[in-house]
């Protein structure tokens, strides 16, 4: 049996636009030659829908698209995902099986994510449908746990429609789950996943087909729209299993997320502060790769505490990337702020107040440029800083999108070094090496808000800090368990305390592109009182 597999970016709450590309795909020769065309889950309206799922106009528009697809399905068969009102049940997240101008079956999602539970009712899960003398088990990715236990009717083929939010572990977990299903059932398998970004959520694609022996018949690329027809009866014709390293997937995810955030929100230009440090250098590089150098602008905002090499490093980066920049010293504004507050502050000694004042001057300048030129301000805070509250609210926390907010500082270094080795761009030729200045990577991190300041004055070494944060945030370990792993108790205790105390800051943070399994705000929330 030939199956046509389509992984595609989906436009959220734009069912009519999604209808256009679905109809084009169904009219293609490759689709016509196949017995069945499979689209990802949530194809008609996109995801996540949140409260929009419950609005009747959204449901009616989705229903109209389905009716149009059904009317055009003569001598065709396909699977399409959408929100669907089920009589005597309610609104379900559904996969609709359409064949020859009729709806032949509806599969409803059983295992709902917490956000989905607010708007969808629980469905029936995996369904087995007879099609061309084959028993095909059709289901959502989350419902396939039932198949891996072998609790359903023995199918000849499994079709999984996914809309899986990316994290750097997900492709490997997905591959393992698919392999176990094939091994358990002795059935061939098709897995279709969407691509693209939707706000902070990223979708990797990576759709694949496996024969009943576990051989990979076809795999589509990650973070690219693609389609392919595959003969599921093949036994000997298998392809090389693509297993990219996690750092490459993260790079592609962030570039894809940036590009789609701008494209889907009708934006073009980006601005960010360039400090000469590694965080802003990485964000600028990703932005240039996503948007083009002509659409990215840097502001260099040195103070009296900035070192000469910081400006030089930032200028070298801008030159390497081919992006424009301006140098706007903050000292005149900072001095004016201090003078204005002098009658209020009196003779109190300067402290963190004045440090934060500098950060807020910089934030104001970046946001002012964004307003004046219609640009979107990019935030450059990393996950380690966000965890510890190491940043100034309304200062370096400014920005409309946190590009690396889900990367630990050590991961920022890893990704920067991978890029400098000529890491491959999305759908482009290999990037030239050493685009990020070596000095930005090697020098000690500093906010440069007072003479000789370094991050290590306030934080443990990042290699130690990130290891503790990973055990606490990602692995869910408590203080005693982390100490048993060999870390100093006082350092562990202080780290956990700062993470808890700074939840209020993170609640006011810009949306961040999710690439880790446990992201702040999206996956992990904590009481603030």
Features:
Nitrilase/N-carbamoyl-D-aminoacid amidohydrolase; Rossmann fold; elongated; 2 domains; single chain; alpha/beta; 18 helices; about 525 residues
What does this entry look like structurally?
The chain is an alpha/beta fold. It has two domains: 2-243, Nitrilase/N-carbamoyl-D-aminoacid amidohydrolase (4-Layer Sandwich), CATH 3.60.110.10; 250-452, Rossmann fold, CATH 3.40.50.620. It is built from 18 helices and 19 strands. It has helices at 15-26, 29-33, 56-71, 114-117, 145-148, 170-185, 246-264, 278-291, 308-321, 331-345, 352-373, 383-388, 409-420, 438-442, 462-474, 479-484, 489-501, 503-506, and strands at 2-7, 36-38, 77-86, 90-99, 102-108, 127-131, 134-140, 157-162, 188-193, 195-198, 201-204, 208-210, 216-219, 226-231, 269-273, 296-300, 324-327, 375-379, 401-402. The strands form four sheets. The chain has a six-stranded mixed β-sheet. A six-stranded mixed β-sheet has the order 6-7-8-9-12-13, with helices on one face. It has a five-stranded parallel β-sheet with strand order 17-16-15-18-19, sandwiched between helices. Helix 1 (15-26) runs parallel beside helix 3 (56-71), helix 7 packs across helix 8 and helix 7 packs across helix 13. The termini are far apart. Mean pLDDT is 93; it is low at 425-429.
């Amino acid at each position: 049996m030939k199956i046509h597999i389509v992984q595609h970016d989906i436009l959220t709450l734009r069912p009519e636009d999604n209808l256009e590309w679905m109809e084009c795909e169904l009219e293609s020769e490759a689709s016509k030659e196949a017995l069945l065309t499979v689209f990802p889950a949530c194809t008609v309206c996109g995801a996540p829908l949140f409260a929009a799922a419950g609005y009747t106009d959204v449901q009616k528009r989705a229903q109209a698209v389905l009716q149009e697809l059904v009317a055009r399905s003569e001598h065709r068969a396909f699977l399409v995902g959408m929100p669907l009102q089920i009589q005597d049940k309610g609104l379900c997240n559904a996969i609709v099986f359409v064949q020859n101008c009729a709806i032949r079956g509806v599969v409803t999602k059983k295992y709902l994510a917490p956000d989905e539970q607010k708007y969808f009712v629980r469905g029936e899960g995996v369904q087995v449908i007879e099609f061309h003398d084959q028993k095909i088990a059709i289901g959502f990715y989350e419902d396939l746990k039932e198949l891996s236990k072998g609790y359903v009717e023995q199918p000849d083929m499994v079709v999984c429609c996914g809309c899986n939010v990316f994290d750097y572990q997900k492709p490997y977990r997905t591959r393992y789950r698919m392999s176990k299903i094939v091994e358990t059932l002795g059935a061939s398998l098709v897995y279709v996943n969407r691509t693209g970004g939707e706000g902070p959520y990223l979708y990797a694609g990576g759709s694949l087909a496996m024969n009943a022996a576990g051989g990979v018949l076809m795999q589509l690329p990650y973070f690219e729209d693609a389609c392919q027809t595959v003969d599921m009866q093949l036994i000997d014709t298998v392809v090389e299993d693509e297993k990219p390293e996690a750092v490459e997937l993260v790079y592609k995810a962030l570039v894809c997320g940036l590009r789609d955030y701008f494209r889907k929100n009708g934006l073009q230009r980006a601005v960010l502060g360039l400090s000469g440090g590694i965080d802003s250098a990485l964000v600028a590089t990703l932005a240039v790769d996503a948007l083009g150098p002509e659409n990215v602008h840097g502001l260099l905002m040195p103070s009296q505490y900035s070192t000469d090499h910081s400006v030089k490093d930032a200028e070298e980066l801008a030159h390497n990337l081919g992006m424009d920049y301006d140098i706007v010293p903050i000292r005149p504004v900072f001095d004016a702020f201090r003078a204005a507050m002098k009658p209020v502050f009196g003779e109190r000694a300067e402290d963190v107040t004045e440090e934060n004042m500098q950060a807020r001057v910089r934030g104001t300048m970046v946001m002012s440029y964004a307003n004046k030129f219609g640009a979107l301000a990019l935030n450059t805070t990393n996950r380690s800083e966000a965890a510890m509250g190491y940043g100034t609210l309304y200062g370096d926390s400014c920005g409309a999108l946190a590009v690396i907010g889900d990367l630990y500082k050590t991961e920022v270094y890893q990704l920067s070094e991978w890029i400098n080795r000529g890491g491959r761009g999305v759908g482009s030729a290999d990037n030239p090496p050493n685009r990020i200045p070596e000095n930005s990577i090697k020098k000690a991190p500093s906010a440069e808000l007072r003479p000789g300041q370094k991050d290590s004055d306030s934080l443990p070494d990042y290699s130690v800090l990130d290891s503790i944060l990973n055990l606490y945030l990602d692995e869910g370990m408590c203080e005693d368990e982390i100490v048993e792993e060999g870390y100093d108790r006082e350092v562990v205790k202080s780290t956990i305390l700062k993470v808890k105390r700074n939840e209020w800051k993170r609640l006011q943070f810009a949306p961040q592109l999710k690439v880790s399994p446990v992201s702040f705000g999206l996956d992990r929330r904590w009481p603030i009182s």
